[in-house]
């Protein structure tokens, strides 16, 4: 039996997760050091900055060439492709600057599919989801922590985005309501990689749009207080009065991760998205918004010792014990204390699971031999009694399967230093310096005996004691398919400066903007890429109407 489903199909949870196409996930840990950062710093020193932090001028690089257009789009992911399509079809000259050698290397090229409303596919299946329905759910979930007007504007754009993709013949299906949200918003994209993005790229080029591949944006050109274009790392200045930055977040940028999360995040997605786009806007006078989140790993977690891809080619875990993060047992932080209702991580691994692991920095799953052997034998879903309260459990084959290589993988984990087996809880505590672990286990066992979690309210089916030797422990670190959060924008996707004034001509779309994404990540599947596509439509409308 397989232990991990296809990550795109699993529960319909996927939103913007992806791999760097053609290279798999090999070497996807956050990159150390940034030559671009150093170069940018040197250039800023040479140019000088205004009192408000924005560039007064950008010195031309000797020997650089120029291209001119109406709009320069930086990044060929969901937001960038959709913005370029709508602008080019409307007659605007558009140049798309993309760091990768193809548009097929974005998270959009490999994600499961977007949440959208009022699309042709929903209408055909009699499952129309209104804008009011989708907006109401997401705005309520955000607890008004986002720019509500912007959220609605981006969601309104999802209809046009998905209908355009349908008209281009991109195959998709409407996903079931796995989470019990009360609506079917997620459109599962049935192609991937080059096959997925090709229709959009071809349509953009047919409408006159131009792509500059293997060309990364370095600086937003600002002269005399006005956006003038983009300086690239390929010796080309793209001159344009309108710039749309949408480079896919900062999954590959450990410096930004440490700044906003206080911990690095293991990259499961496109590590080329290293935060350069966000830094470009900040350097041009923009400001960060407050909401930063990750799309956690719904296939489990990873260990600090993980190198390369944590998955095989068919999306099985390289080590089956990564999946134990999802089972809702006993979890502790680095002090050995519980920090969350573990059931919530099993229910919502992308949203709540990702946030919980970020906050902990490292987390530990503790279990006894009864639990461990049950997972090996009947599987976690059966062991817990197939609880009706476990929304996703009944839908997920992941929870019904058992490890094929438990003994081998356990020894591998022990050898790598992120797992341990011992005769006492005290030994587990000593191994990972978890001072409070023994007291935590004793208290937790009391809740299990009583059938009621007096600390976090975990439901009875998930309360399994840690009593039978030998005992097991597994250490996990944050991992994610993508990031949410970045530049503060207004309801028109214009970058805002530190004084909350829009920067004329400078727009930020997709996950580089932080004003439509909340913490934790939305619990309706496909929310991130849906908002990205919708923001691409909306930013095009704003530029066309300006």
Mean pLDDT value: 88
Number of strands: 19
Q: Which strand order does the major sheet show?
A: 6-3-2-10-19-18
> What's the CATH topology name of the largest domain?
FAD/NAD(P)-binding domain
Instruction: State the domain count.
Output: 2
The number of distinct helices, counting runs of at least 4 residues, comes to 16
Q: What is the first-to-last residue Cα distance?
A: 57 Å
Radius of gyration (Å): 24 Å
CATH architecture of the largest domain: 3-Layer(bba) Sandwich
Determine the fraction of residues in helical runs and give it as a percent range: 25-40%
Q: Identify the CATH class of the largest domain.
A: Alpha Beta
What about the largest sheet?
Answer: 6 strands, mixed
Spell out the CATH superfamily of the largest domain. FAD/NAD(P)-binding domain
For this entry, give a set of tags.
546 residues; alpha/beta; FAD/NAD(P)-binding domain; Flavocytochrome C3, Chain A, domain 1; 6-stranded mixed β-sheet; 19 strands; 32% helix; disordered N terminus; FAD
Describe the structure.
Residues 70-516 form the FAD-dependent oxidoreductase 2 FAD-binding domain. With 546 residues, the protein is of the alpha/beta class. The chain folds into two domains: 66-259 and 266-292 and 484-545, 3-Layer(bba) Sandwich (FAD/NAD(P)-binding domain); 302-476, Alpha-Beta Complex (Flavocytochrome C3, Chain A, domain 1), CATH 3.90.700.10. It is built from 16 helices and 19 strands. It has helices at 35-47, 78-89, 120-124, 131-142, 148-167, 193-206, 254-261, 276-283, 342-347, 349-360, 369-377, 380-383, 406-416, 425-431, 437-450, 527-545; strands at 65-68, 71-74, 94-97, 172-174, 187-189, 210-212, 217-223, 226-232, 236-239, 242-245, 266-267, 293-296, 330-332, 363-368, 419-422, 471-476, 479-484, 494-496, 502-508. A six-stranded mixed beta sheet has the order 6-3-2-10-19-18. Helix 2 runs parallel beside helix 16 and helix 4 (131-142) packs across helix 5. The radius of gyration is 24 Å and the shape is elongated.
């Amino acid at each position: 039996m397989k232990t991990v489903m296809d990550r795109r199909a699993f529960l319909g949870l996927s939103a913007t997760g992806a791999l760097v196409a053609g290279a798999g996930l090999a070497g996807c840990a956050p990159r150390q050091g940034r030559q671009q950062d150093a170069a940018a710093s040197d250039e800023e020193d040479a140019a000088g900055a205004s009192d408000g932090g924005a560039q007064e001028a950008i010195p031309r690089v000797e020997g650089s060439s120029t291209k001119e257009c109406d709009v320069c789009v930086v990044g060929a992911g969901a937001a960038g492709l959709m913005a370029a399509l709508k602008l080019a079809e409307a007659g605007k000259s558009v140049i798309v600057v993309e760091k990768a050698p193809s548009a097929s290397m974005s998270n959009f090229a490999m994600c499961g599919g977007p949440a959208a409303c009022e699309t042709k596919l929903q209408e055909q299946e009699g499952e129309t989801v209104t804008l009011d329905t989708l907006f109401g759910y997401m705005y309520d979930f955000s607890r008004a922590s986002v720019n509500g007007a912007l959220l609605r504007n981006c969601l309104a754009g999802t209809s046009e985005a998905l209908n355009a993709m349908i008209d281009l013949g991109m195959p998709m299906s409407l996903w079931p309501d796995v989470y019990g949200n009360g609506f079917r918003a997620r459109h599962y994209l049935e192609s991937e990689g080059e096959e997925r993005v090709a229709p959009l790229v071809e349509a953009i080029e047919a409408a006159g749009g131009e792509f500059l591949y293997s060309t990364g944006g370095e600086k937003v050109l600002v002269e005399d207080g006005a956006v003038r274009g983009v300086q690239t790392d390929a010796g080309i200045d793209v001159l344009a009065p309108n710039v749309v930055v949408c480079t896919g977040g900062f999954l590959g940028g450990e410096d930004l991760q440490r700044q906003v999360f206080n911990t690095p995040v293991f990259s499961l997605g496109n590590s080329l998205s290293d935060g350069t786009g966000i830094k470009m806007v900040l350097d041009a006078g923009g400001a960060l918004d407050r909401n930063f989140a990750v799309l956690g790993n719904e296939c489990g977690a990873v260990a600090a010792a993980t190198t390369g891809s944590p998955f095989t080619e068919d999306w099985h875990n390289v080590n089956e014990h990564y999946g134990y993060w999802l089972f809702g047992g006993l979890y502790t932080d680095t002090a050995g204390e519980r920090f969350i209702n573990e059931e919530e991580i099993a229910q919502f691994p992308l949203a709540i699971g990702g946030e919980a692991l970020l906050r902990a920095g490292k987390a530990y799953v503790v279990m006894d031999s009864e639990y461990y052997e049950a997972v090996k034998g009947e599987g976690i879903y059966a062991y817990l009694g197939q609880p009706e309260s476990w929304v996703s459990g009944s839908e997920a084959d992941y929870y019904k399967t058992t490890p094929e290589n438990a003994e081998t993988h356990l020894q591998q984990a022990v050898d790598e230093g992120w797992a341990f087996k011992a005769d006492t809880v005290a030994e587990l505590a000593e191994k990972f310096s978890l001072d409070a672990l023994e007291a935590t286990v004793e208290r937790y066992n009391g809740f299990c005996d009583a059938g009621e979690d007096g600390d976090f309210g975990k439901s009875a089916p998930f309360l399994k004691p840690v009593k039978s030797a030998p005992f097991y422990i597994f250490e996990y670190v944050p991992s994610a398919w993508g990031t949410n959060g970045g530049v503060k924008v207004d309801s028109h996707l214009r970058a805002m400066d530190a004084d909350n004034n829009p920067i004329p001509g400078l727009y930020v779309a997709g996950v580089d903007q932080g004003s439509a994404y909340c913490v934790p990540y939305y619990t309706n599947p496909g929310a991130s890429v849906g908002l990205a596509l919708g923001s691409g439509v909306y930013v095009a409308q704003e530029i066309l109407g300006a």
